[in-house]
Amino acid sequence: MSESTDAGREVNDVNRLTRILVVSPHFDDAVLSAWALLDREPAGAADVLTVFGGLPAAGKSTVADAACGFRDGIEAIHARREEDDRALAGVAARHWWLPLVDLQYTTGQRDVSDAEAIVRAVTSWIREQDSPEKDLAIAIPAGSGAHVSRTPPPSVTSGARPVGGRALAWLRALKHRAYVRKRRKALAGRGPAHPDHLFVRDAILESLNRLGGVRVILYNELPYLWSVAADGEVARLSAARGLNVSPFELPVDRDRKQHHLREYASQLSALDPSGRLHQAATLPYTERYWTIRP
Fold this sequence. Notes:
By secondary structure, the chain is an alpha/beta fold.
């Protein structure tokens, strides 16, 4: 069977799913990378679980927080929760946040209890659904590479403007680039994929036997895919874990996606200083996914 035939079958199977849970490592990942899974008929057929939505310790502040215009991590997380509420309004039937904290607020090491909390939340969602397992799916990040832009932020953007206005955009972009370069250097030898994304992905892949007949879908991450797409990483995963993986793509209503994406106003310029995330016309036409089949 050809790859195009396989892809067509996957698209048809996804369209028949009753419910999908999009597991979003951070507040914006579901809308950035799995919009086509959220924006499907019937409306509200998807839920979103944000993993690293917990409050950091008091007084904790990072370069990334400063780049987005926040005094400390607590202010940042409260603001991002409000952005998440607005971005997912009318799209996700339900969305909630685990109390785990973003890697930037930790020592860099995660306990096995964090992985167990993720799997427990996913399996609880499965049990709550009034639907056969074969009609459910869990979508998780594939592990794309991190992107470091060398392009200055645009002079004009669509949607909400970054916190502090354009006057601070250059400073925030420079700070964020320094932060990403530091992270990439620390990950030398493992590739520049975001460690929080890999942690979420691997926690679920290592617990596939606990998901029953629920389908698992990998999604290619934006904006990281603009630098390194996840095809190579998915091929490595498939070989290392003995997975049967089928790729497919879904079309994106870019105007609707950007309308919801703009609610993450505090993050967009830091994520992509070149401004592509601020405009529907520069978003990808499609999103790439892979189904893991038994």
